[in-house]
Amino acid sequence: MWDDARQLNAVAAVLAALAAAALAWGALAWAARQPQFAFREVVVRGALEHASVARFEGVIRDELAGTFFTMDLGRARAALGRVPWVRSVALRRQWPQKLEVTVEEYVPFGRWNESGLVDAQGEVFSADYDGGLPRFEGPDARAPEVVGRFREWGDALAPLALTVEGIRLSPRGGWQLEAKGAAGTLAIELGRDEPAARLARFVAVYERTIGALARVGTRVERVDLRYRNGFAARVPGFRERAAKRKAAA
């Protein structure tokens, strides 16, 4: 090859092209890091009602590094997403020195297990909140189902003037409700099999049973619907009288 002028010229041309490309890339990389391309304006869109504005601004100031060309948007989204109450973040660069940040917060729908919260879509998250919320318990993977049941069963009990205040889904799949009415709190045991159908049957006979007892001043604190043809009710302070033993003959 070294005796072939044509091949030597071709190799030289390729090397020259590579060198030019490397120089061009280096020049672009150098230019991209120059201060004139640094962000001078950050616009945050979306109301921050629960998230700390100071902490959000601190993350923007301390962790969003880079210029218009060099900022790692994925890393920046992850950093902002770690701020409590932040559900999603979108970033958009606007030429030449503007960064637009669109943030969406979680909206608390209920308390989840020991210390978590859950939103209306069934997404579980961690944050501090002092307001009143219904209480939910269950496996995290079934949080959307629990939220859906809350809406469904809340509508079913509303005509009875009962408000669902809590739902528990046990590890074995059993459902329990806690409802509140004028007479106080009523615990409802639904079990695993056909809970919606069981609740519908209970609603249908409520006025003739629990409602009738309430009208004469007898409060029921718990009902167990896990029976094929009826349900059991527990009245506070009621003790079943033990049967007397027959005297020995």
Structure characterization notes:
This protein is an alpha/beta fold. It folds into two domains: 35-105, membrane protein fhac (Ubiquitin-like (UB roll)), CATH 3.10.20.310; 109-234, Cell division protein FtsQ/DivIB (Rossmann fold), CATH 3.40.50.11690. Helix content is 32%, strand content 26%. It has six helices and twelve strands. The protein has helices at 5-32, 53-63, 73-81, 143-157, 195-205, 210-215; strands spanning 41-45, 86-94, 98-105, 108-112, 116-119, 124-125, 135-137, 163-169, 175-181, 184-191, 222-224, 232-234. The strands form two sheets. It has a nine-stranded mixed β-sheet, covered by helices on one side. Strands 1-3-2 form a three-stranded mixed β-sheet, covered by helices on one side. The longest helix has 28 residues, at 5-32. The termini are far apart. The relative contact order is 0.07. Mean pLDDT is 82; it is low at 18-34 and 241-249.
